[in-house]
Design brief:
The protein is 58% helix and 1% strand. The chain has 19 helices and 2 strands. Strands 1-2 form a two-stranded antiparallel sheet. It starts with a helix and ends with a helix. 47% of the residues are buried.
Length: 369
């Protein structure tokens, strides 16, 4: 049997030459290290070799080379480089050096609060890739250089694609998270359902997110609770949203589950005082996702009942199907739903995972990016 450590390191070595993104405009994220680590977590490390070969068939950009070194002690300089993707190689070099000199948890604690306001980076994949790297390191008493480099790349991608949202979220309200979602008004726009128009419309909405009705109010609408409970409420709510919003391009709303599930991985390695501000930043991202990608409520109020009526197989079969499916989004989403359901069972998780299997084509059939 292939061990988790061997599976992860084999994958990282085989994916080492691939850049951060692919696509003509660099708008598609390299999911390789994240999905491979997920396969290892699911106990399918023996499938990584085959999966990597399928994934490598998709052309990716080259790894970025460093140009001008960044100095972590010079705050003005590194802050000026946030969100500058031309400096991705410099960011990677910075984090590789920091991780060579400092324990990885100390580096994580230093940079997490600096980057958390830029969760939109790579449509949340800066934080998600970082979380997968953290899970890998935390599971290994003596991590390899490849595992440390993967954390450097997760942080580097986050910093290089850093993008903040206007306003600040916190939990000062009196409503439940589900109620806050229900009360969030949606702006109906035409031609937002499928690419390429979907990308154009969602980008337009994000650019003017602060102007959209309900955005600012929603940031402070939710009542304070235990951070882990709030994460569970977020993942369950967004699993239900994914299940009922079948009219929408099937990728963006996945991140309403995979992002908070990824953040949950990281919280135990952060000081307690960082937990609630982190979850507040995730909530802000959720509000932006809803306003940018949905134009109506479309059965959201009955998503739980819809899930109860949906015939789904046990999670072990859903996992096996996701591995057979081979799409990186399907694999990651299924694992996130499995993990969240294990913490706080809810029928929306399994129903949403099955919906992703059905809505997202296999790579052989033509992957939706």
């Amino acid at each position: 049997m292939v061990t988790y450590f061997d599976a992860v390191n084999e994958a990282l070595e085989r994916l080492d030459d691939m850049g951060y993104e692919r696509g003509e405009r660099g708008e598609l994220v390299n999911h390789g290290p994240m999905a491979a680590e997920t396969l290892a977590v699911l106990g399918h490390g023996d499938q990584i070799g085959t999966w990597v070969e399928v994934y490598r068939a998709k052309p990716h950009h080259d790894r970025p080379a460093p140009s001008f070194p960044l100095n972590a002690s010079d705050e003005a300089t590194w802050r000026a480089a946030l969100g500058d993707f031309s400096r991705a190689g410099d960011w990677e070099q910075l984090f590789v050096q920091e991780l060579a000199d400092t324990p990885w948890r100390d580096v994580l604690v230093r940079w997490w609060p600096r980057l958390i306001s830029g969760l939109l980076a790579g449509i949340t994949h800066g934080a998600i890739r970082t979380a997968h790297a953290v899970r890998s390191l935390a599971a290994t008493p003596q991590p390899s250089q490849m595992q440390l480099t993967e954390l450097a790349r997760g942080l580097a991608y986050w910093a290089a694609r850093y993008r903040s949202l206007p306003g600040n979220a916190d939990f000062r309200g009196t409503t439940s998270l589900a109620q806050a979602v229900a009360e969030l008004p949606r702006e109906l726009l035409e031609d937002f359902l499928h690419p390429p128009k979907a990308r154009v419309t969602s980008r337009q909405r994000l650019h003017r997110i602060a102007e959209l009705p309900g955005y600012t109010k929603a940031l402070r609408a939710v009542a304070p609770k235990d951070p882990h409970l709030l994460l569970s409420e977020m993942t369950a709510e967004f699993a239900g949203l994914y299940l009922v919003h079948t009219e929408i391009y099937p990728i963006p709303l996945l991140h309403g589950v995979t992002l908070p599930a990824a953040v949950r991985i990281v919280l135990p390695h952060l000081p307690t005082e960082m937990h609630l501000p982190t979850v507040a930043a995730v909530w802000q991202l959720h509000v932006a996702l809803l306003l940018s990608f949905t134009g109506g409520r479309r059965g959201e109020d009955t998503a739980f009942e819809t899930a109860l009526k949906t015939e789904v197989p046990p999670f072990n079969e859903l996992v096996a199907r996701s591995v057979e499916h081979k799409d990186e989004h399907v694999i990651k989403f299924t694992e996130a739903c499995l993990r969240e359901n294990g913490l706080r069972p809810d029928p929306r998780y399994a129903a949403a995972a099955q919906a992703a299997h059905q809505r997202i084509p296999t790579p052989e059939l033509g992957l939706i990016p």
